[in-house]
Amino acid sequence: MNSQFAEFQPDVEPLGTVTDHVNEFINAVQSSTLIEGLTREETGVLGEYLACFGVPRHSTVLREGDGGDFLAILITGSAVITKRHGDVEKMVATLRPGDMVGEMSMIDGQTRFASCVTTLPSDFAVLTHDKFKALLADHPALGNKLLLALLRTATVRLRHATQTMLPNLTDVGFV
Q1: What is the pLDDT of residues 102-111, one digit of tens each?
Q2: InterPro entries, alphabetically (predicted)?
Q3: pTM of structure
């Protein structure tokens, strides 16, 4: 259950696996696309690969520019995603239970694109890159469902980002 997640804050409390908290996990993510199409049994199997951590208020879960090998799913509490722009920290999004953060770095191995800071005491389910690879090897159908959910999340975020920046783009002038 070792993960870089627990190394960020000294007050992070390991809570076991999601299997130990499956009802709370299902309640948190039932409205998200993450487990869309998963049976309760598949969600239980997925839970065996996810470690749970309790995180105090105002804790940095992800730090922009740091390396990272995990994604985190907010189960309880609240957090914000921030991004540096020059010398200013801008709030990009607010996380609510069921939301996921850190998936880009877990997948592509690049540094963190943004930071995530808790605004309330929060619990997170954490999937490391190694556990993700193990899930794909041990349960290929379930791993593929999770891959599709990650892809859906990425496309939704990309569409939203494009719509947000569209008013600020330059007209091409020839259309």
Answers
A1: 998 888 889 9
A2: cNMP-bd_dom, cNMP-bd_dom_sf, RmlC-like_jellyroll
A3: 0.84
